[in-house]
């Protein structure tokens, strides 16, 4: 080989190898995110999640004894009409603290999909329609719902007295005298339960209701410990923030990275799925189709009524907050035309995406959901906020790929994920 030929080959190979090395060690992702985008990404990570604020309405919210007691209440099926339904019957630890049913099922089917409790301690509103304004008041509603636990508060007060007296009194003080309390009584129960309740003295009614409220406060203390764990998304943003693009490219595929760009950009998913929990804790009408079972579901328009009718709302006598300022309730958005058919934005942080999806289980795959948001059909009730996205098939697949990077184990002590009665 002539010297000239060697020189020509070298002149070709050296730039080629330099280009290969540049590709390997300065990945394409190195120039993907500008400063504004990086701020958006960081704001979505769990490192931006503030410490859980104290719940002034629940003085035992962060008491370890309440956590332990609440865990027992959560898994105890005696808190039901027939002794067969517990909180864990629908909010299953192994299924992202929800279930795999189209509608929650206790004593009978409910009309909406079961929501997860993971990270719920950070929210101000509870249930799909936001009809409860605290984690502990939310815990009470299913206990007396005919379709869920189906029991009544007199029954539950007796259960506490007979099985949990010492643990209860260590937290809440002496139990009231229940000798004149009927076996079953409730202001929201069946006809017999309501009749028995109305025969009770006002003092006895208040005593039973306070025990009932404290049951909810213990369950809430337990649920406050059920938090989302860090996902591949969090790892990716950490790598990019540290300028470690080699690690970033190992964490995310090209499609996942492209899906993230769509999520915060063209698809505008962050309009509602923002904050480190990927939820704005607000209510939106997104035109989800209704069927015969849900065609009269008004969503938040019903929930606002439920807020003010709730016996255990923020400023009730059962709140431990002496100030009872309750700004989220006093100044909540309640214009009927804007909240008709609106439902709460669910968190996208999951241990797994478990179908069916949406408040009424209308979709069974993520691709169906993305197709809906892409088309933005008109709402069957109220007015949808959606606008067509006009994403192509590749972009939709990329968005789905990104969503799956949000899955991660629950962040909670392993012992709290176990049924304490399983070994008894």
CATH architecture of the largest domain: Orthogonal Bundle
CATH topology type of the largest domain:
Cytochrome Bc1 Complex, Chain D, domain 2
The SSE string, one letter per element, is HHHHHHHHEHHHEHHHEHHE
User: Spans with pLDDT under 50 lasting ≥5 residues?
Assistant: 1-26
As a percent range, the share of helical residues equals 40-55%
CATH class of the largest domain: Mainly Alpha
Largest sheet: 2 strands, antiparallel
Please give the number of β-strands.
4
Q: Identify the CATH homologous superfamily of the largest domain.
A: Cytochrome c-like domain
Derived structural class: mainly alpha
**Helical segment count:** 16
The termini sit apart by 84 Å
Spell out the key features of this protein.
single chain, 424 residues, mainly alpha, Cytochrome Bc1 Complex, Chain D, domain 2, 2 domains, two-stranded antiparallel sheet, 16 helices, 41% helix
What does it look like?
The chain has 424 residues and is mainly alpha-helical. It folds into two domains: 28-52 and 230-411, Cytochrome Bc1 Complex, Chain D, domain 2 (Orthogonal Bundle); 64-227, Cytochrome c-like domain (Cytochrome Bc1 Complex, Chain D, domain 2, Orthogonal Bundle). The chain has 16 helices and four strands. The strands form two sheets. A two-stranded antiparallel ribbon has the order 1-4. The protein has a two-stranded antiparallel ribbon with strand order 2-3. Helix 11 packs across helix 16 and helix 15 (366-375) packs across helix 16. The model is unreliable at 1-26 (pLDDT under 50).
């Amino acid at each position: 080989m002539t010297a000239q030929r060697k020189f020509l080959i070298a002149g070709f190979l050296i730039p080629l190898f330099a280009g290969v090395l540049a590709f390997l060690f300065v990945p394409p992702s190195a120039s993907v995110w500008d400063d504004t985008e990086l701020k958006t990404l960081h704001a979505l990570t769990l490192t931006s999640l503030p410490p859980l604020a104290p719940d002034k309405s629940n003085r035992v919210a962060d008491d370890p004894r309440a956590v332990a007691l609440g865990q027992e209440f959560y898994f105890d099926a005696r808190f039901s009409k027939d002794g067969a339904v517990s909180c864990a019957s629908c909010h299953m630890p192994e299924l992202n603290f929800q279930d795999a049913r189209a509608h929650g099922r206790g004593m009978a089917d409910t009309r909406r999909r079961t929501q997860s409790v993971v990270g719920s301690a950070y929210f101000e509103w509870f249930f799909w329609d936001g009809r409860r304004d605290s984690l502990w008041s939310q815990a009470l509603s299913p206990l007396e719902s005919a379709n869920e636990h189906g029991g009544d508060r007199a029954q539950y007060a007796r259960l506490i007295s007979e099985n949990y007296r010492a643990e209860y009194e260590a937290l809440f003080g002496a139990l009231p005298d229940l000798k004149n309390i009927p076996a079953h009584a409730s202001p929201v129960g069946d006809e017999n339960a309501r009749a028995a309740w109305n025969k009770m003295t006002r003092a006895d009614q208040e005593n039973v209701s306070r025990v009932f409220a404290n049951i909810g406060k213990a369950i809430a203390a337990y649920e406050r410990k059920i938090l989302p764990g860090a996902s591949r998304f969090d790892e990716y943003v950490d790598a990019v923030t540290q300028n470690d693009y080699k690690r970033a490219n190992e964490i995310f595929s090209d499609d996942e990275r492209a899906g993230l760009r769509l999520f915060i950009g063209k698809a505008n998913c962050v309009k509602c799925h923002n904050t480190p929990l990927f939820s704005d804790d607000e209510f939106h009408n997104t035109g989800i189709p209704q069927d015969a079972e849900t065609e009269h579901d008004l969503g938040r328009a019903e929930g606002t009524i439920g807020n003010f009718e709730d016996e255990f709302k923020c400023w009730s006598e059962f709140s431990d907050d002496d100030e009872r300022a309750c700004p989220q309730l006093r100044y909540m958005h309640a214009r009927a035309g804007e909240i008709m058919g609106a439902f709460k934005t669910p968190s996208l942080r999951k241990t797994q995406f478990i179908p069916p999806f949406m408040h009424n289980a209308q979709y069974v795959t993520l691709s169906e959901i993305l197709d809906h948001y892409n088309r933005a059909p008109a709402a069957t009730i109220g007015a949808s906020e959606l606008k067509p996205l006009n994403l192509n098939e590749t972009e939709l697949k990329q968005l789905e790929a990104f969503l799956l990077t949000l899955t991660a184990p629950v962040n909670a002590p392993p012992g709290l994920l176990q049924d304490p009665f399983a070994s008894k």
